[in-house]
Amino acid sequence: MAQTALIERIYDAVLEADGWMSLVDDFMKAFHGSQAALLSQDNRSGVAQVCAHTVGVSQKALRDYETYYGPRSPLFHYFKSVPLCVPYTDTDYPDQEAYQRSEIYNDLYRPLDAEHLLGVDLIRRTGTSTYLIIRRGARKGHFSDAESRRFADLSRHLQRALRLSRLLEDASQTANALEGVLATQPAAILLTDTAGHIFFLNPRAEELLRGGDGLRLRMGRLQCGRPADTNALHDLIITASNGRDADRGSLLAVSRASSAEPLVVEVLPLPSGLCARRLVMLRVADPRARVPHAKGVAVRFGLTPAEAAVTVALCRGASVADYAVETGISLHTARTLLRSAMAKTDTHRQAELVSRVLTAS
């Protein structure tokens, strides 16, 4: 296989199912080997894990190497002094007679027709090395200097591909963990891109959108029952995606046909770097289902009855000014009660206070 084609195969392996297995096979063929393997091995004990290997090697031989022969190999510990991405062969081992008398050479490598090796260490973390080994039999002879140079050219690409694979694996685990957490939330949680296209829904959000009352999907985009609400929601999404987290404007009361009480939508920016696309999280609460009586809010959060009353009003979609008019108090008094409620709940914005109450179990 040509060098450029082999480099392409290295990066393809990161994205393909069983990609490393097929890549190891490609390396074996390209270097005229009889076996090849990608391994991770403990630098102290020598206990190994075969990450990928060529076909034709029995599972017993693999397990024997991992647990018995690997820890006893005279070559493994010697080659830990070789810098990363610098190839080594069995001819680099200074005591060839001792190597050929060793148990691993006579009981494992010779029966496998794998006396000669070409290897390279690619990653070293605390106590562990990851490396690629190609082996072939005595009849094919030692690996040449030209083969070592070619292997060296490829090793940097192998190293980058392994690091990329690790990053993708970590990102996948993070995404799975995030989905697991969001799935258990009592509020409806949606992740959207800047255009309002849905990226993720938790079960409560799926139920909400199926009902189509207040929020619904149309041509793949999140929309509200009223065009004015849709425009306001998309404006908030764009604002949040740009990282502008103003004290006002991150809460939206979305009208619905089935109830005079609107859905309360909180629009939150997600940290940059969490996803390749810029995403925004929407947390949607139904005041009928989620907001307890003002007395319950007072007990749960240590608020006075007046502080709890203004908090519940905000959770139902009213503004501070609306509450002041409704109750006949001054706007200044309503704002004072709100500031006191936020101080007692350790929140700093109206949206944060509402979210704390609506998501409390």
Describe this structure in words.
This protein has 361 residues and is an alpha+beta fold. 48% of the residues lie in helices and 21% in strands. The strands form 3 sheets. It has a 5-stranded antiparallel β-sheet, with helices on both faces. The chain has a 5-stranded antiparallel β-sheet with strand order 7-6-12-11-10, sandwiched between helices. Strand 4 and strand 5 form a beta hairpin. The radius of gyration is 31 Å and the shape is elongated.
Order of H and E elements: HHEEHHEHHEEHEEHEEHEEEHHHHHH
Compute the average pLDDT.
Answer: 86
Taking strands numbered 1, 2, ... along the chain, how are they ordered across the largest sheet? 2-1-5-4-3
Q: How much strand?
A: 15-25%
Q: Biggest sheet: strands, sense, closure?
A: 5 strands, antiparallel
* Subunit arrangement of the protein: single chain
Gap from first CA to last CA? 61 Å
What's the number of extended β-strand segments? 12
Envelope shape: elongated
Class derived from helix and strand content: alpha+beta
Tell me the helix content: 40-55%
Rg, Å, rounded? 31 Å
Name the poorly predicted regions. none
| Total of DSSP H or I helical runs spanning 4+ residues | 15
Topology:
Elements: H1 3-15, H2 19-30, E1 35-42, E2 48-53, H3 59-72, H4 74-78, E3 88-89, H5 96-101, H6 103-109, E4 116-125, E5 128-136, H7 145-183, E6 188-193, E7 198-201, H8 203-211, E8 215-218, E9 221-224, H9 227-241, E10 251-256, E11 259-269, E12 279-285, H10 287-290, H11 294-301, H12 305-315, H13 320-327, H14 331-344, H15 350-358
Antiparallel strand pairs: 1-2, 1-5, 3-4, 4-5, 6-7, 6-12, 8-9, 10-11, 11-12
